[in-house]
Design brief:
alpha/beta; D-Maltodextrin-Binding Protein, domain 2; 23% strand; elongated; disordered N terminus
Length: 265
């Protein structure tokens, strides 16, 4: 009996030893303020760096990102998804949410700008050098769905401005977001694509052939705003101020974005 009691005591002590750290970690996580951020997927790499930076600045805060096309994120917010902060790659998506009272208008600001570029696969490097070459030197190309992907909208505007849309429309493989466009080009599934300059920096094999001419598309703006239904407005506001800081601007610039210092809309 004595041996049995000792064994049980030892097992209990081991269990406490093993479970203790887990309980501590769980308690630590529970104590953190969580900010749910829905952001355009083109921001993926920059936000990953900024998350690490903010963790050092505010260790009691956990930033959780939901990354997708701006149109998809807009729909999720309209359907009641738990979101504190929305960062869109297009003005339209933010305008639509604003019209429905789903964002806090007084928190809205233009965070970033960007450029639209023509990227080509490694097989077509040197063959497709300009937008005009898409008409006769590209067998296929890709842009985001213009209805839901801001980069796709800008792409269609550019191709229409250059009088190329009617010539290339049948060649287009529409994508769910800019990262999918980039994947199509890098894999050789299409000869060319239109993406943001910030995305093009992530290419491993393709290359940037040309930049969309000035005036060929609507201004590329990344507005951000707190979501009206946010239950963590104070902490969300502090994170937004961080995103507009000089330190954050340097990170965004290193990823190919144009910081706008949170110019108020």
């Amino acid at each position: 009996m004595r041996k049995t009691a000792l064994c049980l005591a030892s097992l209990l002590a081991a269990a406490v030893f093993l479970v203790g750290p887990v309980l501590q970690d769980t308690a630590s996580a529970a104590q953190k303020n969580i900010i749910q951020v829905s952001a355009a997927i083109s921001l993926k790499d920059a936000l990953a760096d900024l998350k690490k930076m903010y963790a050092r600045k505010a260790p009691n805060v956990e930033i959780q990102f939901n990354l997708a096309s701006s149109g998809m994120l807009q729909k999720q917010i309209e359907e009641g998804a738990p979101v504190d902060l929305f960062i869109s790659a297009g003005k339209k998506q933010m305008d639509d949410l604003s019209a429905k009272g789903l964002i806090a208008a007084d928190t809205r600001s233009d965070l970033l700008g960007n450029e639209l570029v023509l990227v080509v696969s490694k097989e077509k490097k040197g063959t497709i050098r300009t937008f005009a070459d898409l008409a006769d030197k590209a067998q296929s190309m890709s842009i985001g769905q213009p209805e839901t992907v801001p980069a796709g909208k800008y792409g269609k505007e550019t191709l229409s401005y250059l009088k190329l849309w009617d010539k290339v429309e049948k060649k287009i493989m529409f994508a769910k977001d800019v990262r999918q466009v980039l994947a199509y080009v890098e894999s050789g599934n299409v000869d060319a694509g239109l993406v943001y300059r910030s995305d093009a920096r992530e290419m491993k094999s393709g290359t940037v052939a040309a930049i969309a001419p000035k005036g060929s598309h609507s201004p590329i703006l990344y507005p951000m705003a707190a979501v009206t239904a946010s239950k963590n407005k104070a902490e969300t506001g502090r994170f937004m101020e961080f995103l507009k800081s000089k330190a954050a601007a340097k990170v965004f610039a290193s990823h190919g974005f144009v910081p706008l210092a949170g110019k108020r809309k």
